[in-house]
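User: Need the bound-state model for magnesium ion:
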Amino acid sequence: NTRVVRVDKDNPDKTVLQEVGEVIKKGGLAAFPTETVYGLGGDGLNAGSSQKIYAAKGRPSDNPLIIHIADMESLAQITEDVPEKAKKLAEKFWPGPLTMIFKKSDRVPYETTGGLESVAVRMPSHQTALALIRAGGGFIAAPSANTSGRPSPTSAAHVAEDLTGKIEVIVDGGEVGIGLESTIVDFTEEVPVILRPGYINQSMIEEVIGPVRMDRGLLITDEKVKPKAPGMKYRHYAPNAELTIVQGSTEKVVQYINEQCLALQAQGKRTGVIGTDETRKFYQGTVVKSIGTRQDEEGIARHLFGILRAFDEEKADCIFSESFDTPRMGQAIMNRLLKAAGHHIIYL
Ligand code: TXA
Ligand code: MG
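Assistant: Bound-state model below.
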């Protein structure tokens, strides 16, 4: 059965994490908080642990895992050729919500990299995550701790919904800070490529290392252009209900969503609306939720996955969401929202 242990996220109990670290060293699995989302951790250098991670998540085993480290010495042990630009980014953003991809060393099993010659590495800034990585042997492979296809977990309760009975331990460190997964930058190509947008955006990266590219698969919704990160090709973050994003002036969006909701409700359907503190009062859906105020884009990012999960509990048949193309994190927020909607967006 799955044990839940609570820790103070900034000052976690060392003996508790030592025990959880032992579980991981012995090949077991433990979910733990990071500053982005909760991770499902196992020993990244143990092929058997990685196989267990895929099984617990129901994730295809060609979708590689990120190895989480706690210091720069560890990076050298699992990679070959770390370019200067990557070292600069590490200096600026590690520990933090940034994942970088390099050629892997022989120590990293193919089970962890989904058969690839490259390995994704991240040094998180969360104190509980760092302490657990150290206690667990230094190399923790961890995807987001959700069932494959569901929204990533931003609280221990979300993890428990998906993984109870499937892993040894859940370390509950409360709510996460950012709420969207790390930015991924691929350094195996001549010009570094952003494979997944996150809290650290393109211009923050370019300020440090100059021009980087956005993976074409992120920009184009053409089915034939596959994103380079294997995980980005799957339908993802998806609530059970059909989700539609509606973009345009507030007035038009409110009018359109209300028309749709009323028509669907007349057919006996339960509708859901994702609005903001500013607009929620205008909507006539069966269930209307606010993702927060438009003034706080970090709040919108932090609440997104939780709100998608909440609509599953409400048993909504159809959900309509406003668009959140905010200045700094808009690219990351819209990347997740569009995937959750299966790219179903209406421009008014
Ligand atoms: O914030 C995060 O990154 C969280 C926390 C737990 O650290 N982890 C996370 O892992 O989001 P996951 O497995 O849910 O997403 C990792 C993504 C997947 O889309 C995967 O395909 C891609 O990274 N990826 C991993 N290794 C790769 C590689 N060698 N080449 C290309 N893409 C890779
Ligand atoms: Mg994930």
